[in-house]
Each structure stands twice: as C-alpha cells, then as structure tokens.
Amino acid sequence: MSLLSQILTILLNGLQQGAIYVLLAVGLSIILGTLKFVNFAHGALYLLGAYLGLFITTEVQLTNGMLPEWGITTFGLGLGFLAALLIVPLVTFVVGIVMERFVAKPFYDRPDTDQILVTFGLAVIFQEALRALIGGDSQSLPQPAWASGPIALPIIGNFPRWRLGVIVITALLVLFVYALVEYTDFGLIVRAGTMDSEMVRLLGIRLDRPYLVVFGIGAALAGIAGVVGGPLANVNPNIGTEQLVPAFLTVVIGGVGKIEGAVLAGLLLGTLQVLLIQTGFAAWNRVGIYVLAAVILLVRPQGLLGSEVDVE
Amino acid sequence: MTVLQTDGLTKRFGGLTAVDEVDMSIDKGEGVSLIGPNGAGKSTFINLVTRRLEPSEGDIQFNEQSILGLDPHEVVQRGMSKSFQTASIFPDLSVEENAIIAALAAEHGSFRFNFLRHRNAYPEVTRVADEVLESVGLYEQRNATAKNLDYGNKRRLEIGIALAAEPDMLLMDEPTAGMSPEETESTVELIKEVKEELDLTFLLVEHDMEIVFDISDRIVVLNRGQVIAQGTPAEVQDDPAVQDAYLGGAEE
Q1: Which residues of B touch A203 (CB under 8 A)?
Q2: CA of B252, closest CA in chain A: separation in Å?
Q3: Burial B83-122 (b: 16+ CB within 10 A, else e)
Q4: Which residues pair with B222 in a beta bridge?
Q5: Is the dihedral of CA A288, A291, A297, A300 positive or negative?
Q6: Cβ B101–A189 below 8 Å, yes or no?
Q7: ipTM above 0.85?
C-alpha cells in the first residue's frame, strides 16, 4: 500500500468517523445557538435512533431483561434498513417536538445547570429503562444488503461501501439543513432569533413555531446518526452517553450555532481519531481529541468559526 | 383619521402615578413629539402604548380599535412600529436581510411564513425591503454585514427596519442618542425626508429641543404624568407652564 493510498484511507475513514459527530453536533449546535438550550439528552436521541433502527430493520432474539420474563422474546419488525432510514427521522422529529414543548420550553429561562440536570436525568432514565426492558447486551444492526461489502475506489482500493454511504448521507443532510438555514424565511428568522430573540419578538414575529422546528430537526439528525452509525459498532444502551461528549466537543470546537463550524470540527476530530488508531496509537485516540479540543479552545475560546463570545 | 388615541390613560406604581389621565390623539400623517423633564412619565407612556406595561386605568385605541389585552407583538402587527433607544439591528445579517426580516414580519404576521420557500420567491418582501433601504440611503450597502456599518448608518438601518414593517405609526425613542452633531443632523434630515415621502405618522420622544422644534407638527408636554401643554412648536415654546416645568420646578 502506497503512502498516498494510506493517507487517503485515513482521510476517508476520518470523514466517516467525523460524519457521525457532525450529524450529532449540527443539531446540538443549532439548538444551543438558537434556543440557548443545553440538551444533554441529545445522546439519548442517538440511542433512540439506533434502537428504533434495530427494531425496524430486524428481529432480535431477547435473552435478558424484563421483556423476555414477560414472555416477549422477539423484538422487531424486520422491515429492512431502508424503512428504518425513512421512519426513524420522522419519529425522532416528533420526539424532538414533544421534548421542546414539555422539557425544553419550561426551562428556557432557567440557568444552564438546571437544563443540564433535567436533560441528563431524562437521558439516564431512558437509557436505564431500555436496559431494564431488553437487557444490556450488545446487538448488531446489520448493514443494508445494498450497501454492504467493499467498493473499489481509485488509489485507495477496496473501501467498505457502507462507510462511504454514511459520508454521502451526512453530506446530503448537512447541505439540506444549511440551505434551510441560509436561504429560507425560516432560516432568516432562526438566524435573527439567534442574535436577538427579544428584537425578533418586538418586530412582531413569534418564535415558538420556528423553535419547535429547530428542535425537531436537531432530534431527527441525532436519530439518523443512530441509524447510520449503528452498523459500524455495536448497539447497546451505553452508546448515547458515549457519543454525547464528543458531540459537545465538536460543537464547542466549531463554534456554537455554526453549521460550518460543526462540520469542520467533526471532521477534524474524526480524522485525528482515525489517524491515531491506524498509526498504532489506538489507546490514545480518546485522549487525542481532548488534547486537540483543549489546544483549540486555548487559542480560540469562541471555537474555530464562532463569533466573539458575548458576555451576557 | 385618528391613528392613536388615549383616553384617561393612567399608570400607577404603588403610590406613584407615573402617567395621570392622559388624553392624547395623533392623526394620520402627523408628526408629534412627546417632551418633558426627566421622570415626567414619557417612557412609561411609550411602554403603555406598546403594551409592554398594563395600564391601571384608561383606554388606548390604535386605528380606532382598542388594543388593550393585546400582546406587544400583536400591536406591532396592527401597524405600530418602534425604533429603539439602544442600537438594535441584527449585527451578523446583511443590511438587506435586516430589512427583509422586518418586512417579513409585516407581510406574514406571526407564523404564517412558509419556511421551505426560498425567501426571494416572495417578491413583495424584497421589494419593500429594497425600497426602504433606498429611502434611508443604504441601498448601495445592502450586501454589507450590518455590524460593519458606522454608527450613523446603523441608526439609519434601525429606522429602516422600523419602516420596513410598513407601519401606520412609527415610535421613535431618542433616535439620535449618542450621535455626533453631524450624524444627528443627517438623521433629522432623514426623518423629515421619510415623513414627506411616505406621509409618515410618528410619535417622537426626544430630549434635544432643537430636533423637536425642527421636525414636529405638534408637541405634547408631559410633567409629573400629566399633559401640561400642547400645540405647534411656536405655541409650546411661548407657553409659561412649559417654561415653568423645565426651569422653575425647583423654586417652591
């Protein structure tokens, strides 16, 4: 394997690893930037996405947990992966809207710490309820048949087709959200609301509805991240919390509220992790992303593409 | 036609009566200034009219309908627009986007906007925004980011934002506060021009007497919550009660 193909492989794997962070961070970032709401339940939406994906795609035999004790031993609809890819975002969008109304909205005017407590609490409740019901075993979400196996790429050679699929799906979704925010009335109002929500209200525009949609979109992206990320690792009740911290790092490194920032930061973190893993420093890959985060935040506290930090 | 009318408008804070049975009316196309010494109740009056404060007594009619019970944003949608005391623009949006968002508010009301539509697909909104930028002299700079404008142009944009909502009445709360003499002069010119051009109805709150006498059709003088005089600039200038309120209040 030539050096060039090695570098390209690392970059492509980094792109894929980063893609999951990007999907999570874009939603988290627009929710934090626009609604000023710190959502520690974002990882739980990823978890929900992964399990819904599992549930819709396959039928799983359950051995642990309360459901088998109650006589329910098979779990799932077996509709296939494409169905999951279409249904999960819709379901998580609705879950996001319900969360905005009943969890986030009552806490908009409360301190960040209260928001963290309530959302993290909610995430833990969901995670542990899931573990109690179906057990903590790792399940595998199979790759879609149409995208499994390798694909031959120039220079790089064989590359897992599904990893490429994750990159393409992420790119399309991020472009969609970016276009929504940059080029539509909705986006203009959301961006203006991010800068000065009081003034948008004084102009006579109500922000309730745009905020609801922002939360829904963020939740849907996290749900999709769970589905597309599922086949790349095991699915178990811990994956939500595991993804939460890198997702927040991505948001902070990229600059709160900036989609381009989330993309850049996600790709940086992903590529660094893959670089460390593939050059024999696998044990250091988690350490690496924190060091990178610390260095970037020391130099640019507002994040790579963030605006000046406004002290409120 | 009467645009704004208050009847016996009163606001009490505990034992203090900040606004005391004020009857005031503004006709369409009229430029009215509200003046008075500090603590006369000007800000309270504005906050009552914009529905940010609940009156203790009295009625407020806008376009001949009572606006009691409405939310502030609903008052804006009825056509009362306010240019703010503090610099209020959206700093990271372009000049044109600043105007568009105000025009959107007027055009679509609260949340009827179709959020999947490209905003330029709605020519009316862009047309209003561009016309307003034209009339406040910022059309050439419409693609600039708002925060990069100089102070005077920021205040012009602010007035532009208020105008883009196509208001039936514009409230201006010290529009020249913090401006240099040149900027003040050009803003005063701007207000005069816009009034002429759009037959604008406005209510201005201002400390600077020179400006007030320059651009008002009528002046209302408030002291201790009550209207003590009103009339043309010349009438008000010669009114002994007004001179007393400004100069002689401390004698007793």
Answers
A1: 73, 76, 101-102, 105, 161, 165
A2: 42
A3: bbeeebbbbebbbbbbbbbbbbbbbbbbeebebeeebeeb
A4: B227
A5: negative
A6: yes
A7: no
Q: Do B110 and A191 touch (CB under 8 A)?
A: no
Most B CBs within 10 Å: which of A180, A205, A259, A260, as the mutation test of the B interface?
Answer: A205
Chain A with chain B: Cβ pairs closer than 8 A: 85
Tokens describing residue B54: 């609940």
d(CA A195, CA A105): 19
Q: What is the CATH superfamily name and number for domain B1-79+169-252?
A: P-loop containing nucleotide triphosphate hydrolases (3.40.50.300)
Residues comprising chain B, all counted: 252
Q: Is CATH 3.40.50.300 the classification given to domain B83-167?
A: yes
pTM of the model: 0.80
Considering CB atoms only, which of A184, A191, A199 is closest to B117?
A184
Task: Specify which residues A84 forms β-bridges with.
Answer: none
Domain ranges of chain B: 1-79+169-252, 83-167
pLDDT tens-place string over residues B226-246: 999 899 998 988 888 888 877
- Rounded mean pLDDT of chain A? 89
